[in-house]
Amino acid sequence: MFTQRFSCLSADTRKAIFLVCLAVAVVGVSYGSLAMAYGFPLWLPLVLSITVLAGASEFMFIGIIASGGHPLAAAAAGLLVNARHIPFGVAVRDLVGNRAAALLGCHIMNDESVVFGLAQSTHEQRKAAFWLCGLGVATLWPLGALLGSVIGSLLPSPEAIGLDAVFPAILLALVIPALKNRTTLIRATSGAAISLAAVPFAPVGLPVLLSLLGVLTRKK
């Protein structure tokens, strides 16, 4: 029955979803390894990967805490990063299911599941792609984090092997295409400037939040 539910998807779509979920697992390995290298207990990245299920927020959380930031500041930064899920929820409201199923459907909503869900031509295919990708990410992300945690406990410091550069590199790769838009470039640059200017004076974690003021910048 599980196979029949996704049989409406083409083989190419199922393959693409599998490859994306596999890539997510690889990033999860980096996340788990980095958490261990920063001195977090093994259970933390695993619990976060299951309950939060939002890679960028989780990376940011452990990064801010490891830098000496307050957990509330780290949590607030993670929530702001995931604020994009509000319009996502509106866009896929007919795909998440009803009643109890909607709780799980909302939990597995992420960038990948939304993109695959909205890219299909029929409602049946959209719903199948959304759930297949969402469940795949919800399964492979924690597994990757667990594997990374085990590996990370055996590795030297993150600086020695470059693990501390994983998260900035991932964010940079995600951001660069958006910077082709002039308005986005101006606002991102303004936010970065505000954040850097606040570093010497603001507590760890707060400059990240202050960078959001960059969205108020208008193109002249």
From TrEMBL:
Membrane topology: Multi-pass membrane protein
Pfam families, alphabetized: AzlC (PF03591)
InterPro entries: Brnchd-chn_aa_trnsp_permease
Compartment(s) of residence: Cell membrane
Record-annotated membrane-spanning stretches: 16-40, 128-155, 161-179, 191-216
Keywords per UniProt: Cell membrane, Membrane, Transmembrane, Transmembrane helix, Transport
Principal subcellular localization: membrane
Superkingdom as given in the UniProt entry: Bacteria
UniProt entry tagged with the keyword Cell membrane: yes
Family named by the database record: Belongs to the AzlC family.
The protein's name in its UniProt record: AzlC family ABC transporter permease
